[in-house]
Every structure is written in structure tokens, then in C-alpha cells.
From TrEMBL:
UniProt GO MF annotations: fructose 1,6-bisphosphate 1-phosphatase activity; metal ion binding
A GO biological-process term: photosynthesis
Protein name: Fructose-1,6-bisphosphatase, cytosolic
Record organism: Microthlaspi erraticum
Pfam families (alphabetical): FBPase, FBPase_C
Key word Nuclease present: no
GO CC entries: cytosol
Chief localization: cytoplasm
Superkingdom of origin organism: Eukaryota
Domain Fructose-1-6-bisphosphatase class 1 C-terminal: 205-334
Subcellular localization, as worded in the UniProt entry: Cytoplasm
């Protein structure tokens, strides 16, 4: 009998138990983070269940469409946003929320305020919803360092000030990947228990990978370093094998694969979108935080991504993230370009 495997099956490390263990290292901690996280987990479980039955429950389609009974249907991303906002406000642990779905930040009423600010994309990769491809929720968490009225200044802070970040991927299994600044840990939802169980402790990204992930349809508008980098992936000059291209077009899925298999994910600037497409607060920062915690790097084309100081809550930035050595290569190409100018 394999006792070790048996122990693994019977001694379940749920995400709550994991975070409580982490918290016990800080005697002054009052459990606020655990409460906040359990509300995020609740949102993820809700979205997971909604995504699984989206086709059946007719949750796909455009917001504002009416169903067969003439009732207005909520699009899955609008529904997910409502659930997250309500779960986060009711946690009593948040003061400012920034969601991809809402133009303005949400300031929590004073009686329900807490010390955290959460930036999130409730359902990222929404163009993939209707065809059943993996999508996800991305979140980043800051702490308020004052007790004055909350403002957007509380979230317009560099990513290196985040205290935690993560994503939940709704794919062939539902997986939540989290970092509280002490490595990256992956939890898989056991649907029969309704619990996220630690299945991928201390994820480390390979130092170098053999996959690149980018929307090559934009290639005609790329700048010199990006064009050269992708050219090198396909036609390496040092005799190494060409890299494989994988692009789902759903950031959570593409970043998740990059984290586990290694390689690079890039959404660069191009002539049409000089700031790229992805949003700093709830796409670039959380994923960059996770990459660095896993031993990789994240670069904007100009600087370390986590050092960027956003000026607007829905600001965009180019991003290159993944295996340490792969990002090092693109950094060298940008450095060489800068020297020329
Ligand atoms: P989507 O437009 O489907 O919501 O920022 C959102 C995002 O998806 C990311 O998840 C994804 O990486 C990227 O956009 C895909 O953009 P392209 O279609 O331009 O490649």
C-alpha cells in the first residue's frame, strides 16, 4: 500500500487551511486576509459553476439580449462582476475595488470598510466564452496604509506594493493560483467537496522554455525588438531548436501554460496600440507578481513591469513575461535598440 499517496488523499490542504497556516506566522494578524480570500474564493466558485452551465443556462450572448421568456439576460461577465463586487463589499475587509467591468472605482461605504483594496478582472478572455475555451478571473490585492477617505490613489500604486495576487482558471479543471509573496501555489477545485485543494505547491517556472505565445496577426505593426525576438523564436541563429507557438487568446490560459511549462507570453505595443492591450492593474500587475514569485520575469519593453506607476485605473501597458532567460533576451533587444537611438 502506498502510504504516502494515501496520506496525500486524506490530509487535504484546502486553500483556507493553507492561508491560515501562512497567517499563523504573523502573530499580529487578525484573520482579515483569510476572510477576504474566502470571499474571492466564493466568487471563483460561483463563476466556475456559471461557466460550466453557461450554454445550458443561456448565459452566453450579448448583455441586454432577452431570453425566450422575454426576460433580460445578464451576460456572464456582467454576472461575474456583480458576484465579485457583492462578495468583496460584504467581506467587510475592502475599501476600494477596481473592476475591468466598471468604468469608475467602487468606494465601499464606511460601515463596511476594511484595510484591503482589490483590483480584478472578473472574467478575462471574454471573447472565448461563447466557444467554451478556458477563461479566468484575475485579481491583485493592496493594503490601505491610512484611515482617511479612500481614493483611487490607494490603487494607483506600483505592482511591487501588492500584497497578494492570483487568478482562477475555468478550464478542463478549475484551478486557483495564488501568491501572497512567499512563492506561488496552485489549488484545484474538487467539485464533490466544493473546496480548492493544494495540488501544485511552490510552482517554479523553468528558467528557459520552448514556447512563445503572442497574437502574430499584429506582426505588421510591431516595433523592431519584438519583430526580432519573434523572428529569433522561429529561426534561432545559435543552432537551438525553433520554439513552438501556442496562443489561446485568453490571458489566464496563456499565462498558466507559461507558468507551468516555461517560455514567454507577450502582448507588445504596436503602431495601432502604442500601450499594448492589457490593463496594468488587473492583468499586467497580478500576472507579473506571480511570474516573479515563480522565478520568472516581467518586462514592459522599458522597465520591470512591477515598477510601473499607473496614472489611471484602466491604464494599459505592453508586457513580456515568462521564463527568466527568455525575458532576458527581449530585454537585451530593447537595450540594444535604445543604444542605437
Ligand atoms: P479578451 O479580449 O477575449 O477579453 O484583455 C483581454 C484579453 O482577452 C486577454 O485575456 C487576452 O490575452 C487578450 O485580450 C487577447 O487579445 P487579442 O485578441 O488581441 O489577441
Amino acid at each position: 500500500m502506498d502510504h504516502e499517496a494515501d496520506a496525500y488523499r486524506t490530509d487535504l490542504m484546502t486553500i483556507t487551511r493553507f492561508v491560515l497556516n501562512e497567517q499563523s506566522k504573523y502573530p499580529e494578524s487578525r484573520g482579515d486576509f483569510t476572510i477576504l480570500l474566502s470571499n474571492i474564493v466564493l466568487g471563483c466558485k460561483f463563476v466556475c459553476s456559471a461557466v460550466n452551465k453557461a450554454g445550458l443556462a443561456k448565459l452566453i450572448g450579448l448583455a441586454g439580449e432577452t431570453n425566450i421568456q422575454g426576460e433580460e439576460q445578464k451576460k456572464l461577465d456582467v454576472l461575474s462582476n456583480d458576484v465579485f463586487v457583492k462578495a468583496l463589499v460584504s467581506s467587510g475587509r475592502t475599501s476600494v475595488l477596481v473592476s475591468e467591468e466598471d468604468e469608475e472605482a467602487t468606494f465601499v461605504e464606511s460601515s463596511k470598510r476594511g484595510k484591503y483594496c482589490v483590483v480584478f478582472d472578473p472574467l478575462d478572455g471574454s471573447s472565448n466564452i461563447d466557444c467554451g475555451v478556458s477563461i479566468g478571473t484575475i485579481f491583485g490585492i493592496y493594503t490601505m496604509n491610512h484611515t482617511d477617505e479612500p481614493s483611487t490613489e490607494d490603487v494607483l500604486k506600483p505592482g511591487n506594493e501588492m500584497v497578494a495576487a492570483g487568478y482562477c482558471m475555468y478550464g478542463s479543471s478549475c484551478m486557483l493560483v495564488l501568491s501572497t509573496g512567499t512563492g506561488v501555489h496552485g489549488f484545484t477545485l474538487d467539485p464533490s467537496l466544493g473546496e480548492f485543494i493544494l495540488t501544485h505547491p511552490d510552482i517554479k517556472i523553468p528558467t528557459k522554455g520552448n514556447i512563445y505565445s503572442v497574437n502574430e496577426g499584429n506582426a505588421q505593426n510591431w516595433d523592431g525588438p519584438t519583430t526580432k525576438y519573434v523572428e529569433n523564436c522561429k529561426f534561432p541563429k545559435d543552432g537551438s531548436p525553433a520554439k513552438s507557438l501556442r496562443y489561446v487568446g485568453s490571458m489566464v490560459a496563456d499565462v498558466h501554460r507559461t507558468l507551468l511549462y516555461g517560455g514567454i507570453f507577450l502582448y507588445p505595443a504596436d503602431k495601432k496600440s502604442p500601450n499594448g492591450k492589457l490593463r496594468v492593474l488587473y492583468e499586467v500587475f497580478p500576472m507579473s507578481f506571480l511570474m516573479e514569485q515563480a522565478g520568472g520575469q516581467a518586462f514592459t519593453g522599458k522597465q520591470r513591469a512591477l515598477d510601473l506607476v499607473p496614472e489611471k485605473i484602466h491604464e494599459r501597458s505592453p508586457i513580456f513575461l515568462g521564463s527568466y532567460d527568455d525575458v532576458e533576451e527581449i530585454k537585451a533587444l530593447y537595450a540594444a535598440e535604445e543604444k542605437k537611438n
